[in-house]
Amino acid sequence: MPPETLPVDPDAEPPPSPRRARPSFRRTARRRQWDILAAIAVGGGIGSVARYGLAQAWPTPPGGFPWATFATNVSGSFLLGLLMVYVLDVWPPTRYARPFLGVGVLGGFTTFSTYTVELRGLLAAGHWSLTDAYALTSLIAGLGAVWTGIAAARRAARLPVRRGPSRRSRSASSAVPRPTSSKGRAR
């Protein structure tokens, strides 16, 4: 069949024109991404092997609390909080730190899929209260671990720990008068 009669994929890029000597921006940008993908892949392999080792060392009994996955996800959240402070505020910018460590190693180490499969298994076995405890404590502990990691990294790097505005600074800086009660005193 001649090439003119073949169906054309609408998502496919047109072939390069022979007049163009330089590669297009899109092709150059795509070529530059392979090194980042390689860094993520190597980091993901390291992180997933570490997670597998922890799961083998700390097996979950049938109907028991999945401590290995819980510890993996909470410690990974803590490490991600630490890492983001160092990558964004402390270390000089690098091309590979965040993709390799954050997306690769910690992305391969932490596991939302295993968490979900374990929740489904606990539900299927009728362990309703254990399922609730695992779901809620994992989310709350993960959020607390990220915050703790950020605060610890900022303290270690001697950066101010951001806590948001206090009541005193909000009231002192606001130009709007506070509402008063019917007796004329501020609430």
TrEMBL record:
Q: Where does Na(+) bind?
A: 107, 110
Q: How is its activity regulated?
A: Na(+) is not transported, but it plays an essential structural role and its presence is essential for fluoride channel function.
Q: What is its main location?
A: membrane
UniProt GO molecular function: fluoride channel activity; metal ion binding
Q: A Gene Ontology biological process annotation? A: cellular detoxification of fluoride
Q: Give the GO cellular component terms, alphabetically.
A: plasma membrane
List localization entries.
Answer: Cell membrane
Annotated InterPro entries: FluC
Bias-annotated ranges (Low complexity): 171-187
Biased-composition ranges for Basic residues?
Answer: 161-170
Q: Which reaction does it catalyse?
A: fluoride(in) = fluoride(out)
Q: How does it sit in the membrane?
A: Multi-pass membrane protein
Q: Does the keyword rRNA-binding apply?
A: no
The organism's superkingdom is given as Bacteria
User: By its UniProt entry, which Pfam families does this protein fall under?
Assistant: CRCB
Q: Note down the stretches annotated as region Disordered.
A: 1-27, 161-187
- Give the stretches traversing the membrane: 36-55, 67-88, 100-117, 133-153
The UniProt keyword set, sorted, is: Cell membrane, Ion channel, Ion transport, Membrane, Metal-binding, Sodium, Transmembrane, Transmembrane helix, Transport
Q: What does the record list as coiled-coil region(s)? A: none
- What family, per the record? Belongs to the fluoride channel Fluc/FEX (TC 1.A.43) family.
According to its UniProt entry, what is the function of this protein? Fluoride-specific ion channel. Important for reducing fluoride concentration in the cell, thus reducing its toxicity.
Name under which the protein is recorded: Fluoride-specific ion channel FluC
What lineage does UniProt assign to this protein's organism? Answer: Bacteria, Bacillati, Actinomycetota, Actinomycetes, Kitasatosporales
